Each structure stands twice: as C-alpha cells, then as structure tokens.
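Annotators were shown the component list below and the corresponding predicted structure, then asked to write short factual statements about the assembly.
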Amino acid sequence: MRQFLVVGHEAPTDPGFSLDDLPGAGRLDLLARSVTSAFLLSHGIRKAVRCRLVLADEFTVRFEGRELRNLRPDERSTAALVRTALEARENAVGSIPAEAAPGVYIHRQGVVGALEAAAGEGTLLQLHEDGEPANEVELPADPVFVLSDHQDFSEGEDELLAERGARRVRLGPEALHADQAVTVAHNWLDTEGWTAF
Amino acid sequence: MRQFLVVGHEAPTDPGFSLDDLPGAGRLDLLARSVTSAFLLSHGIRKAVRCRLVLADEFTVRFEGRELRNLRPDERSTAALVRTALEARENAVGSIPAEAAPGVYIHRQGVVGALEAAAGEGTLLQLHEDGEPANEVELPADPVFVLSDHQDFSEGEDELLAERGARRVRLGPEALHADQAVTVAHNWLDTEGWTAF
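Structure shown to annotators:
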C-alpha cells in the first residue's frame, strides 16, 4: 500500500469555512489537491492508497482508497469532503475515529498521533529538498510519504520524523507543491524508479 | 522554453459560467489545474514556460510565464483568469490576440491554429498511453507537450499531430489526468530524464 501524510499547519478545524475561498481557509486548496493527486488516475481511483491530512495538529482526516465513493477531481468538492469530516468531529472521541462519508474518517489526532499510526504501517519517506536523490533510493514495499503544506516542516516535526527513522528523499532539483510531489512520487513508484514505463 | 498545449473539448467559450461549478463548466477545473501545474513551483513561477488552452476549438487562451502576475495556485482564481480572457474575446480580431491580463492573451484560434503556432516554436510531443517510454526519448531543447482534457484526442486531432511530426511519448504505465501529466513532464525535464536530481 502507498500512503501519504500531509501536514496542514493552518488548515481549518471547524467546518465553518467558505468553499469560495479555499486558499484563505488555511490553504485547503493545496490540501484538497494533495488528496486528489493521491487517489485519482485519468479513468479511475488508486485503491491501494491511504492518505491522511493533519489539520492544524488537532484533527486528522483519513481517506481510504478501497472505500472512497465520492471523490471527484476538483478542489471544491474535495474540500467539501473535508468539511463533512469536520462536521462529524464531535463523534471522534478519544482514539476512536468517526466515519463521515464512505472511506473518509476523522480522528482526534495531531501530527504525533497521525505519524505514529502511519509509521506502524510502512516505511516513512520525508519528501525534502535536501534528501537523497530518489533514483538512488530503493523503492520500499509500503512507502509512507510525509509532506508539508506551503510551510516547511517545523523543527519539532523534523525531529519527530528523524526519531521514527524517516528517510529524506528528493524527487528533483525544484521545490514542488505538495500535490505535485504526490504526483511525482506516484510516477516514481509506477515506473519502478523510472525504469519501467 | 517549455510549452504545453491543452485541448479542452468542452471548455466554455462564453464568460457566463459559474466559478462554483468548474467541473460543470466543461471541466474547467482540470484545465485550470493544467495551467497552474505548468507554471507554479513551491515558491515561485517557471518563467520560461508558455501554456495554451484551446477552448472548444474556437478560442485559445495563451499564458506567458515571463509576464504572468496574477496566477495563484487554486483552481477558482485560475478559472477566473480564463473568464477574464473570455470577457475580452471580442477584442481578438482575426489573427490579432487581445491581452486580457498581464501575460494572459486570448486568440480567435481553434486546435489547428494553436497547434500551428506552437509547432513553429518547438518540438511537438503528444503525451499518449501508446507512446514511446519517456526514458528512451531524447530530451528536446524546446518541447511542446500536447495534451487532451478528460476526453481522448479526436481522430482529426491525432491526424493533425501526426502530420506535424508530433512524437508520442508515454510518461508511465498509468493514464494520468492532464495536470498530473504536466507535472511529470516537468519532472522529466527538471531531472534531465530522471538522471539529475
């Protein structure tokens, strides 16, 4: 399984945001695109994918490729799914998530909790400008790509990732948006390290 | 210079569409994402890029990286730029384009006209599932990537591209959305064919 964990530092934790101004809603435009990039192909969905969005270190919305039914490619409808998840936030109690829509779960979980859950399920790869070139890194069987939104990872987040053995990987010489990095990461895996097209 | 030409078969040619339903406006969500993927990096813009959106074989909106000032990463604001271009459509007369915003031009030009203009400026590459594997194709100096929206190229478009010597290239084993393909194409070039990270 391929996983993506995107840290949304300023993402909303309250459903009362406007779908007409997603950049103003803690860059939910970028987070929504990261989710669609994680799952959508031209004519279908990547089922063996899990994606977590950490919202302002307070909630985590988890998307499951095998269960998703309402994911469409545009930012607005995906942001609406995040809003639906936040509308169910009071049903997420302690470590028990709430299912807000098919394949969309909300957890009362910040960066530490989301990262611990993901680290138990695969190999952490931190997409980072200073990482090892991806073409020199062996493809892990169950990669968990960890990305930051428009802000850099905080020092605390960098430490957390280092403690959990995250490997830093660079996908190219240019610093990409998180959603673009998700797309390139998939291409890296799809082509078995750019060898099989 | 890198160029992208995206054929929007059902794209609006009238500015009277709603920014609240971009998928319903001839998949303008996808076209807007293709434009932002062509230009935006994490902290800046790719200046040496030109992108053309062909709208329903009637108008072409041309974006110039060196001149763009108002391109933001979200779909809605980019779709609003397309709307601004369409509001200026009556000023595009014959072969003379109208500048609707800094770096945003509208031409009275369909697929044939846009393709002829682009073909004179570089090497045509048709991103196509049946193309040659990108890792076996030599990087052209001035690539012009030609992509289709959610629909396949029509037979007529395929013929036009073949007549103009377009080379078919495959970026991986999965069929990607146009905007994702733009991102991977950039990564191919950024890394000099996935050799330089």
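Statements collected:
1. The interface with chain B takes residues 19-20, 22-23, 29-30, 33, 37, 40-43, 72-77, 133-136, 150, 170-177, 180, 183-184, 186-187, 190-191, 194-197 of chain A (CB under 8 Å).
2. The longest helix of chain A spans residues 75-87.
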